[in-house]
């Protein structure tokens, strides 16, 4: 099996609006959390984290908001499965019913829902299910606006992340690319429903702008098969582009 470390230059997205989840490849836990810094607490459903707090009612461990930064520094890839759901107050854990706890166990084990995993008691925004960190991720979103905001932040972050001592544009460690507004990503909604790849590695930069190519490749659950399809499509004409105008400091979308 390929590892994401071998090809850190693509993001695969497939959106299922009916069941309110997104399948993705290429988005690491630390990148996700950087895009949602205001989360409260995380209830850990499947993990290998050693510093969680044990909840006696659910028999799950959790991480409080002020300690999430420490979890972000973990090598999540080495956990294998890493699944969690956010929640507001610890008291809510203590009133979860047996059926709800069973649903959470099923969710983390099968990576599918018995019913949509949004609980009034927890007031959660997400249910996050991953395997080998960015290799495979299935995240449920209460609001898809959250997803588009996160994706826009992740793409910009990848472009700005340093490579050695220099950033993507060759400058010294400086974030000079703004997050992509969610409205710019809206034209790709139908493509995301089909399954599309955003290729950071094949971005083309000139003095006035940066172009990120996009291909629609289909719906994949198996990321090895997704890579094979992407390999066959990456030399074909693109299905769309994200373009950053460096002078205007603005993002635009072009859809085929």
From TrEMBL:
Identification of the protein by name: Uncharacterized protein
Organism of provenance: Heyndrickxia acidicola
Organism ancestry: Bacteria, Bacillati, Bacillota, Bacilli, Bacillales
């Amino acid at each position: 099996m390929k590892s994401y470390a071998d090809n850190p230059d693509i993001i695969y997205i497939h959106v299922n609006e009916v069941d309110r989840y997104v399948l993705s490849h290429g988005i690491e836990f630390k990148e996700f959390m950087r895009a949602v810094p205001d989360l409260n607490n995380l209830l850990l459903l499947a993990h290998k984290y050693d510093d969680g707090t044990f909840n006696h009612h659910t028999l799950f461990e959790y991480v409080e908001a002020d300690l999430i930064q420490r979890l972000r520094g973990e090598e999540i890839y080495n956990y294998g499965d890493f699944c969690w759901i956010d929640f507001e107050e610890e008291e809510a854990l203590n009133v979860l019913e047996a059926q709800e706890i069973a649903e959470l166990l099923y969710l983390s084990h099968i990576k599918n829902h018995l019913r949509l995993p949004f609980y009034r008691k927890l007031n959660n925004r997400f249910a996050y299910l991953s395997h080998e960190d960015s290799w495979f991720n299935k995240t449920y979103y209460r609001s898809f606006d959250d997803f588009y905001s996160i994706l826009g932040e992740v793409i910009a972050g990848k472009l700005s992340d340093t490579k050695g001592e220099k950033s993507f544009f060759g400058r010294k460690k400086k974030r000079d690319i703004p997050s992509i507004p969610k409205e710019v990503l809206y034209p790709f909604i139908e493509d995301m429903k089909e399954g599309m790849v955003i290729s950071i590695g094949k971005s083309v930069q000139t003095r006035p702008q940066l172009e990120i190519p996009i291909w629609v490749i289909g719906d994949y659950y198996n990321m090895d098969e997704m890579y094979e399809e992407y390999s066959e499509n990456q030399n074909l004409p693109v299905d769309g582009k994200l373009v950053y105008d460096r002078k205007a400091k603005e993002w635009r979308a072009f859809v085929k």
